[in-house]
Specification:
Four copies of one chain form a homotetramer. With about 140 residues, chain A is of the alpha+beta class. Chain A has helices spanning about 25-40, 45-55, 125, 130-140; strands at about 5-10, 60-65, 75-85, 90-100, 105-115. Chain A is about 30% helix and about 30% strand. Chain A has a five-stranded antiparallel β-sheet. Chains in contact: A-B, A-C, A-D, B-C, B-D, C-D. Chains A and C meet through helix 1 and strand 2 of A and helix 1 and strand 2 of C.
Chain lengths: ~140, ~140, ~140, ~140
């Protein structure tokens, strides 16, 4: 994995499995959310504080490819990074790996928009320049 | 089952199972919630409308005995009824049965309190006498 | 909606919402599963029986666009249909609508493969010709 | 808290909340499971390995009192310990605390039985004396 990914690591819980014996496919979407909020926290954006200020970041799209199943108690690392950001919309990419295994198990993506309390887009670079800078920094090279 | 129970029926979803091949024990608590809100609806109390008026009914306790496991695609009926109500607190009892089987599979109970927007108890019989009457009627004989 | 869609209808549960007040985006993926298994049932394929025979249909990809949020107690209809099938892989398309509203709220897609007990692909048209016919019929015009 | 409790700590995920803004009551039951399996791991019992040997520990009862709500991003510690064990059945007690707060937020309990592959009780002290010793040690003083 490239170094500009953020890494979020935990074990798979029992209740995340289904009768097929593997993690239910809907739970990867939740794991992405955990990784995304952890990644944002690490670049200085605490989502709880954002919501308190009146900013929400709803999910507008999600996609996932399940390549290798995850099992109960697997030690997984979710690599995530912001791949697009324009002040209004954001895209995040995810890759899940198991410990001691080089093969990628899952590849995912989520799309988001930034909305204010009235559920409307707002001028982030004007109203919240610090937030804007932290995010735009993620997609600059 | 006695006749003063409300009956809520549906099939078990695939994602409700875990790797043991049975419904995960946490999901019965969700099934109770479905049954409870359906039962309240049937006695004329729509929970969505209650919340719009500013009344919430948080869960303050829950208990469950798992006697016979539920499986994917099982056709289950959740019997529920209000067993206690005093204007401030409410208790609901649940029993889950499978189609064509007389044995009770699950027995549960939940405790609730009625709170206003400020998360405080309120005088329901004064402020919402209609709501009070509908609920007190459930526990009178 | 076109007529060759299968329709699955139910109300949104309270526990499907999150603190944003809307259905959590991971729960749409579960709703798709409910709709897919219901649709397969209607064309004569009971997934529980398939698993008993030794056939599983894991999800290999999923995608979803969230256009209009779903709320607690919304009366939703999930339209689904098989859009691709070649004896080994299958694709299903989903669209979610609210009652009395013509706008599509959610568009989704899931990809699946058919595997035997050893988690390997098998010749469905040879081994399970009835199953094959039921599915191929869905994508023929 | 007394010192013979095992402590499991993590933050509350966004998807664990509901539209009331607090953690949905069913999710505490899942948090108890995480804490229980972590506690068992710490006393030398890996649940994944148990299942591989053919031992399952289904939940036969659960109860929970919700005293103080948990919120998104709360840093919670789940204290758990085995309170009863007789070779066939086990009881586990749980208490949830928030960081920097002495008040207990949640008190829970779960009952379990040990079953073999045929879903039948077995003589653990004869068949798995090491497992028996690890568990009986928890309830001896």
């Amino acid at each position: 994995m490239e170094e500009n990914y953020s890494v979020y690591r935990r074990r798979i819980y029992y209740y995340e499995t289904d009768k097929m014996g593997i993690v239910h496919h809907s739970n990867y979407i939740r794991l992405f959310e955990e990784a995304r909020l952890d990644m944002m926290n690490k670049i200085g954006i605490n989502y709880k504080e954002l919501e308190e200020v009146g900013i929400i970041i709803p999910v507008i799209s999600v996609s996932c490819k399940y390549l290798i199943p995850l099992y109960f108690d697997d030690d997984v690392s979710v690599y995530s990074k912001v791949t697009k950001f324009n002040g209004i919309k954001m895209e995040v990419l995810y890759e899940i790996y198991k410990k001691d295994n080089e093969s990628v198990c899952t590849i995912g993506q989520s799309g988001h928009c930034f909305l204010d309390k009235e559920m409307k887009p707002f001028r982030m670079n004007k109203l919240y320049p610090d937030l804007y800078k932290k995010l735009i920094k993620q997609v600059e090279h």
